[in-house]
């Protein structure tokens, strides 16, 4: 199978940017909408399904490796999770974590894969709409009737149909299927659910490490980061939605917990005296804004209150008050 590293780095360029202007930039993949449409026309719906399944397999492999890293740091992560309202205790626990950079790299790779797949799905949707406009309408209407009260099996069936037509879904059915089949042998559902929760904790408390990376600078011309950490937002949201759908848990509750822990971690970064470790602090705060914007997008299954979602940029007081 194709290595996921063939997709790295993947810059999400504005569609209107001419390809010629990027000719001097090495190792940049620019999958423009026209190219994605051409790909969908060339390989057809079955080819796009194979491509999607292949990409999801790579995502599942990365999640499996992430779970191993969580297990290696289980005790420390449990303590961090229970110390969200105790910044001093969190600061003392953070140095005990191992492989935090590895976690961020793997999550970034997942985001890159999902971003590429989203563009491929967009091309498929445009081609499908062109060839079968009267079929696309009813499928889109089906997705509009999904609510948080809809049976999860019905929801996933509708989303699977929509995904086959290239329509983006709040919970990716292909990712749900892959993660449901990648549970560690001999692990109980309760233990697997605990690992899923602690994975979000691991990512949240590791985010400040990105500030020390010279490449963690928001590039306005690229509309992204040179090290592709803008893809983290998509990875966090889609992996969380799929993992907690597998366990039939409330997605919103766990994303709130993620934002709380990330808020505390970023505020601690604001007190960092080492200038090298905090040199790109503002860029990491902007990254949290990307996650916040994605969570505040109109949807039915992922809808935390916007006042809470934007708390990482407004300060910790509002969240700490609830503790």
TrEMBL record:
InterPro entries found in the cross-reference section: Nck-associated_protein-1 (IPR019137)
GO BP, sorted A to Z: cell migration; cell projection assembly; cortical actin cytoskeleton organization; neuron projection morphogenesis
Superkingdom of source: Eukaryota
Pfam families linked: Nckap1
GO cellular component terms, semicolon-separated: SCAR complex
The protein's name in its UniProt record: NCKPL protein
């Amino acid at each position: 199978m194709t290595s996921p590293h063939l997709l790295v780095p993947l810059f999400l360029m504005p569609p209107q940017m001419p390809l010629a202007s990027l000719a001097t930039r090495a190792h940049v993949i620019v999958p423009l909408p026209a190219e994605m449409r051409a790909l969908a026309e060339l390989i057809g719906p079955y080819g796009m399904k194979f491509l999607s399944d292949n990409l999801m397999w790579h995502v599942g492999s990365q999640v499996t490796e992430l779970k191993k890293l969580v297990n290696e740091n289980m005790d420390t992560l449990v303590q961090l999770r229970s110390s969200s309202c105790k910044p001093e205790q969190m600061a003392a626990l953070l140095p005990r974590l191992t492989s935090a950079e590895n976690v961020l790299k793997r999550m970034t790779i997942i985001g890159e894969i999902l971003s590429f797949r989203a563009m491929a799905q967009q091309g498929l949707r445009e081609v499908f709409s062109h060839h079968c406009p009267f079929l696309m309408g009813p499928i889109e209407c089906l997705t509009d009737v999904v609510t948080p009260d809809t049976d999860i099996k019905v929801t996933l069936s509708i989303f699977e149909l929509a995904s086959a037509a290239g329509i983006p879904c709040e919970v990716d059915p292909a990712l749900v299927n892959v993660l449901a089949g990648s549970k560690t042998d001999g692990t109980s559902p309760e233990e697997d659910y605990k690992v899923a929760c602690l994975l979000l904790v691991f990512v949240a408390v590791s985010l400040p490490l990105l500030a020390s990376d010279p490449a963690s600078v928001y590039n306005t011309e690229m509309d992204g980061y040179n090290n592709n950490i803008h893809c983290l937002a998509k990875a966090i949201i889609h992996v969380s939605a799929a993992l907690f759908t597998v366990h039939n848990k409330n997605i919103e509750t766990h994303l709130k917990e993620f934002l709380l822990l990330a808020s505390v971690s970023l505020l601690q970064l604001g007190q960092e005296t080492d200038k090298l470790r905090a040199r790109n602090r503002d860029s990491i705060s902007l990254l949290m804004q990307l996650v916040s914007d994605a969570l505040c997008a109109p949807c039915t299954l992922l809808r935390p209150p916007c006042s809470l979602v934007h708390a990482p940029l407004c300060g910790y007081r509002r969240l700490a008050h609830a503790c």
